[in-house]
Amino acid sequence: MADHIAVHRSGLTMPVVTPRFIDNAWRRGCDFINMDLEDSVPQHMKGYARTLIKDAITNVTKGGAEAFTRINHDLVLADLEGIIWPGLAKVNYPKAEYGEEIQLLDRIISRLEQAGGIRPGTVEIGADIETSVGVANAYDIAAASPRVREFGGAGGYDMSRDLGVEMFVGFDQFVYGKGEVELAALALGLEPHTAPFTANTTGSVGDPDRAFREAEAARKCGFRVGGGLHPNVVEPQTRGFTPTQEEVDEAHQVLEQYRQLEVSGETWAETDGNIIDRYEAARARKLLDWSELCAARDQEKAEAFARVEAAEA
Amino acid sequence: MSMLIRRSNLMVPVTNAKFAAGAWRHGADAITLDLEDGVVPALKAGARELVKDAVAVAGKGAAEVFVRVNKEFLVADVEASTWPGLAGIMLPKVESAEDVVEASDALTSAERRHGIEPGTLSLILLLESANAVFRVREIIAASERVSQVGLDESDLSASLGISPVAEYDPFVYARGRMAIEATAAGVEPIGIAHPLGTLPRLLSGDDMLKVATDSKNLGFKGIICPHTSWVSSVNTAFTPTESQVDFYTQVRDVFAQAIAAGTAAVPFAGRMIDVPVDEWAKVVIATSTACNLRDAEKQTAMEAASV
Asked: Which domain range does residue B296 map to?
């Protein structure tokens, strides 16, 4: 696993050209804000949109969120030259299809980091898999740069168009591709970013109950990365990806029982129908680590909010 | 680029005179005359003699006509199949890129002898083993002639030692792999959702339509139909519905208005419409138009042939 585990439970993707979204973004309480230059920005506004990023970074991070930018697949150089400013944590690159594309991104970002006095390696690359070619080359893409730390995709509208399938059907039309990107991520020690199938036949993007169920299901399948399009889903996603107090208590109990087991020299025991062994102990430790990271992240955001309020008072 | 519309491909043994003679009446986009598993070994040689007339008859309703050849009799079968009206051959039991190159070479040589423009005849590949599923990428890429690739799930079951049951789908991975790799290579994946791939049988209209629609949503572009009764459900399932065309026409309008107003993200019907949704809307509408044209073409030919 990566040395630094990012906490990206909730996030909003929004067109950077819509001031009412950007100006209110910091209040939403998400772990990250993804400022879009791509699909939500009209073609004739691409150049203008780029010029907004520098100020928007400062604006959207006031509440402790990390700032990401989604660039255009076909405007890589111009977009990168307009957006690599201090405070940008990640560049999301849509429709990634070849490792060479990611290597090129890496080179340009390295040059711009150096020119801008940004610590080398700061800016992460999100290589979004949205086509069948991308799935076919998933491993090469994920392995192309150490800046790729979270890796996934293989669903969504672009993928549906590429495969020629409808989005909202009663089964998982993307199961193979999601499996491939997850395996590539795990094989390379990256954080997998995908989710198990939960039926959604309406296509609603703002249903908080659904967002919570989805996030909880994803967490139970080992995923920790969220993100959405509607403010209603931020809190449910943050909650769904955070371990509950009950789970934290259980994890402490498992570790306590495992310590006793080690004293007795046994390798496993059964209590109340549950197995206690070193695998369960490792799982419990991982949950507690994640719970602490989530708490630290929530603390950071609360402090940032307090600073803004103090400044405005 | 014109869109290939080959939703239904009706398979008939060339030795069954009644089926071969009537196949054109069912509205299939393609008809495949079988020389392979549908013909017992003793009749193989005689079956080749039937192909010339059968190709002409099968094409009466404007279906594309294919012949499924025997891999072990590739050259003789290709030679017996190359007559006016042949769209291509279906190559079963493909195991390697070499198999595809060999078939392509056989077609090139047949084209030359018959004065057909080189590269005209198309290949539909059938994968029937774990090896073939694993090597799908090199197999598909072996020839420009490859237009479609499918799984023969019955033979794949036998190859893997599976006795299929309806309750469990053994081929989620194989189907997904083929759909992704074919789409990535610009070749159409064809196939049918569980359980009809491993257990082909007759289903009533609605049930058949459901399975065919699921197949489309697995990424497939068409279905090989062992029964005439599958054809109309398959054509319907792979044609965008009127309500889809209406919905996506509205999506295009709403999106165009949003662009004019300075945003490419606009809420509509609870969804968020942005570029990829608009792009998909274009695909749905263009597919609908192409399907309607294909259906009109077949209708005209069938009416003319029925007179």
From this structure: 242-306
Domain count of the fold of chain B: 2
**B169, B243, B272: best mutation site toward chain A, by most A Cβ within 10 Å?**
B272
Selecting from A14, A161, A177 the residue whose C-beta is nearest the C-beta of B279 gives A161
Among B270, B274, B275, select the one facing A204 at the smallest CB separation. Answer: B270
Quickly count: other Cβ atoms within 10 Å of residue B154's Cβ.
16
Does residue A201 sit at the B interface (CB-CB below 8 Å)?
A: no
Residue type, A208: P
Task: Say which of B137, B217, B244 has its CB closest to residue A173.
Answer: B217
Residue B83 shares a structural domain with residue B159: yes
pLDDT tens string A204-263: 889 999 999 999 999 999 999 999 999 999 999 999 999 999 999 999 999 999 999 988
| 3-state secondary structure (DSSP) of residue A87 | coil
Q: What is the pLDDT of residues A144-182, one digit of tens each?
A: 999 999 999 999 999 999 999 999 898 999 999 999 999
How many A/B residue pairs have CB atoms within 8 Å? 106
**pTM given for the model:** 0.94
Q: Are strands A269-271 and A274-276 parallel, antiparallel or unpaired?
A: antiparallel
In this structure, the number of other CB atoms found within 10 A of the CB of residue B254 comes to 17
Q: Which fold has domain A11-240?
A: TIM Barrel (3.20.20)
What's the rounded mean pLDDT across residues B38-58?
96
